[in-house]
Amino acid sequence: MRHALVRRLLAAAPAWLALPAWLALPAWLAALAWLAAPALAWLAAPALAGGSQPAMSAAAAAAPMAAAPWWQHAVIYEIYPRSFQDSDGDGVGDLNGITSRLDYLRELGVDAVWLAPVYPSPQVDFGYDISAYTAIDPQYGTLADLDRLVAEAGKRHIRVLMDMVLNHTSDQHRWFQESMRSRTNDKADWFVWNDGIPADTPGTTPFQQRFAHDGRVPPNNWESLFGGSAWEWVPARAQFYYHRFYRQQPDLNWNNPAVETAMFDVMRFWLDRGIAGFRLDAITSIFEDPGLRDEPQLEGVNDQGDPALDHMYTEGLATDALLRRMRTLVDSYPGNRVLIGETYVSSTAELDRLYGGAAKDELQLPMDMLAGLYVNAKLTAPYQRRYLEEAQAQLHGSQPLLVYDNHDNARSIDRFGDGVHDVAIAKLLAALLYTTRATALTYYGAEIGMRTAPPTRREDVKDPIGITGWPAQKGRDGERTPMQWTPGAQAGFSTNPHTWLPIPPSHREVNVETERADPDSLLNWTRRIIALRRGNAAIRDGAMRMLDRDDAHVLIYARTATASQEAVIVALNMSDQPRLVHFEVQSGIAGARPIAAGRPIAAGSARTLLSTDPSLRGEVALAGLKIAPYAVWIAAVIG
Ligand code: NOJ
After folding, report:
1. Residue 557, strand partner residues
2. Tens digit of pLDDT for each residue in 224-276?
3. Would you give the distance in Å from CA 281 to the centre of its chain?
């Protein structure tokens, strides 16, 4: 199975709050103090000013967060810094811009932001090519700006997670600059170098021959995910180096212990500054087959027009020991720092391995992209049920991290929308993300239904794969366009009419300001559902079980906490027709008393907590329950 990334790559003034005495510390130290404090912070959270909606109900705000680590309940919000908010009018988003929008995030109910890379970079891959790991790229701000962001986020009980690119550096990084100079320098063995093989070696493929230099060709058929050979020739060493991504992104040699030492020092640098954890880029690509075996060729070509390969020797090679050491590193810090993995794997079993299986001593949150980001992912009850159930049953009880959107894939509203019920479908996706038993990861703009807006002319494309792959491959610009804050000029993103990517015309209808004023908007739905999750013990923490395993159209599940807490039923109609909802009470899955002791449901009724179906208000009898097309119904079981 290939995931969408691989397919596409193959293929206010803020209401500054009164400064508590302890925050009169240097900003980063203050943030650290907060990180170390118990995650009960919502109780102390000040009310938010502004907005037509209250930040959350008093009950939600007062709901105690259990002893579980903060990330287990979290709503994590991915920010693509270039595109969130421009504070200095250069047309590119920046750290101070993000800081100025923290109240919005707090109002939405976000617990943590993940920042796509903000380190110095030539920006070939928009920051995923890092040229210095312990600094901030001037176009995004300074280290002091980052410290201020962390401190101001902390005041709003929002943690900051950084992207950490361990697999590769930029070719402009001083490590690589030194490494490429000779075969004998101090960093000679920090990257993956190879002599290649004589061009006349029998069995070499035409693909290898295309990359011949000085009578030698790459040692095997490995390909860059971004097109062409994964091997690049450097005359000064008369050798090739390996790059999984662009040739400007040489892979580090993680078999060299000095690399691990240097990178662990980098991670300590940020952890010491109060960063709550990392999203580990391309973590399953860290190691390659030491035997450099050719990868089996599949049918056809990839999106770059290169022969399609099974990446069995360049992806998913055992990282367990490394991840355990990394986990030990983050666990040595207070405040439940977290390791999130970019883990495109093909099965839940593989995902379990990245947690460390039963030992749970590797990543706390490898991303589960199976339900939402694979090329063949479908918004149907059977498809979603399968992966949601697998995540409950096959992860040794670890917390799933569901992902339906990110900066590498067309937005979910476009992938799953049917062109008729798109907003209803986006509301349903939000329900899936926030009411299943999982940590939720969302992407800026999903909460307002921003659309994918790919470039229409090759000369406008910024993502290099969109330039080389045009027109079949338009790159990833479409899902990275500026955040749509207002219907006005530059969507409120920037004062500069020349923003780094154009503002889609859809911003006139799809924007925060307009949606804030509309009680029925996707934004207000998303806020309500996050507030419900925060305030409802069953949704936040409870077990999850399917109430019907066979329904082809309606996904229906229960969330149950303790017997003293309300059980919740969620019904999601993943079809364009009204449907009757069945409860499989006799099946043995749920039993005759499916929800909680003393509360049989089939003949009972439930109290609607939230629904997009206006006919399902107040108390609803469960027998003969009918739900509108693409509707969501969330209810507390009365019994
Ligand atoms: C995954 C990132 O999400 C993507 O944007 C980037 O191009 C590659 N890794 C390489 O770092």
Report:
1. 546, 570
2. 999 999 999 999 999 999 999 999 999 999 999 999 999 999 999 999 999 99
3. 10
Query: How far apart are the C-alpha atoms of 551 and 382, rounded to whole Å?
Result: 7
Q: If you measure from the C-alpha of residue 281 to the centroid of ligand 1, how many angstroms do you get, rounded to a whole number?
A: 7
pLDDT > 60? residue 49 = no
Measured from the CB, is residue 342 less than 6 Å from ligand 1?
Answer: yes
The residue nearest atom 3 of ligand 1, judged by CA position, is 408
**Which residues make up the CATH 2.60.40.1180 domain(s) of the chain?**
541-637
Regarding predicted confidence, which is higher, 137 or 62?
137
Catalytic site residue from 342, 368, 390, 551: 342
Mean pLDDT estimate for the chain: 88
Q: Is 88 a catalytic residue?
A: no
C-beta 128 within 6 A of ligand 1: yes
Atom 4 in ligand 1: which residue has the minimum CA distance?
408
- 403 bridge partner residues: 441
Q: What is the DSSP string of 218-242?
A: -SS--B-TTSSBSEEEETTTTEEEE
How confident is the model over 172-183, as a mean pLDDT? 98
What number does the ligand 1 atom closest to the CA of 125 have?
A: 7
Share of the chain above pLDDT 90, in %: 80
Contacts of 133 (CB under 8 A, 6+ apart): 119, 263, 266, 269
Pocket of ligand 1 contains residue 555 by CB under 6 Å? no
By percentage, how much of the chain surpasses pLDDT 70?
A: 86
For ligand 1, atom 6, the nearest C-alpha belongs to 128
Angle made by CA atoms 602, 606, 609, in degrees to the nearest 5? 140
Given this structure, which CATH class describes domain 3-168+259-529? alpha beta
Distance 148 CA to ligand 1 centre (A): 27
Looking at CATH, the fold of the domain delimited by 541-637 is given as Immunoglobulin-like (2.60.40)
CB of 477 shorter than 6 A to ligand 1: no
pLDDT, tens digit, 9 for 90 and up, residues 283-330: 999 999 999 999 999 999 988 889 999 999 999 999 999 999 999 999
Q: How far is the CA of 408 from the centre of ligand 1 (A)?
A: 7
Which of 133, 167, 245, 480 maximizes ligand 1 atoms within 8 Å of its Cβ, making it the mutation to test the pocket? 245
3-state DSSP assignment of residue 156: coil
268-272, 296-300, 487-491, 600-604, range with the lowest pLDDT: 600-604
For residues 535 and 435, is the Cβ–Cβ distance under 8 A? Answer: no
CB 209 within 8 A of CB 217: yes
Range(s) within the chain of domains with CATH label 3.20.20.80? 3-168+259-529
Distance from residue 342's CA to the centre of ligand 1 (Å)? 9
Whether 86 is catalytic = no
- In ligand 1, the atom with minimum distance to the C-alpha of 226 is 7
Mean pLDDT of 34-53: 36
Quote the pLDDT of residue 602: 64
Q: How far apart are CA 547 and CA 580, in angstroms?
A: 14
